[in-house]
Amino acid sequence: MPEHRMTTLIHLPPIGSLLRHAGRPLLESTLIPLALFWILFTHAGFDAGIIGALSWSALAIGRRVVTRRKIPAILWLTTVLLVVRTVVGLWTGSAFLYFLQPTVQNFVFAGLLLVTIGLERPLLAKLADDFCAFPDALTQHPRMKSFFKKVSLLWAAVFLVNGVTTLAVLATQTVGNFLMVSTAGSYSLVAVGIGLSLWWFQRSLAGEGIGLRIGVPQPKLRVG
């Protein structure tokens, strides 16, 4: 008889719950500050735009502190970097220097991902917690730890390519065109990275006899 390998089945939340969990930190830390900047920039000027973006991020952190909720690592990172950007923007009055910083941040993130590969939990694993709450049985698995170390190389490459392309757009386009082109290009590149990561993730788990099921676990039927 053929030998069947036992499979450990791990349940993840339904798709809707996963999308809400992943979309909230992205919306809170990136899309809303960017939208606020553009609205205030076009109606009240450059200074109002950068102050509005920073104010939103400060409000998002303050609300979580008051309600004693966990502050996502991505929100901490983006807010600290946004403080630096705002200081430079107000000091110089230069939109080019203001947007140069998030472009340079791509290279910084790539470096951080590479530097933390040797840690027990690389930076990418901590950031992943903000977007998908994996069960402990999965995060502590040796294959899972190895996966995050290896996929950190993929995301370092994603940030490097994104940094080079956005730098080229920043040097040749107006603020409005830069926001439109760089945002569309960056999210397209990130979407490709997510797709490759999910494919790699599934293959890594399958090699260890671990299966994933998305949705609420079905109750076991009783016989008799």
TrEMBL record:
It comes from the Bacteria. Pfam families: IspA. The chain crosses the membrane at residues 35-61, 73-92, 98-119, 153-172, 178-201. InterPro entries: YciB. The keyword Membrane applies. It comes from Pseudonocardia halophobica. This is Intracellular septation protein A. Signal peptide: none annotated. One of its GO terms (cellular component) is membrane. Coiled coil: none annotated. Keywords: Membrane, Transmembrane, Transmembrane helix.
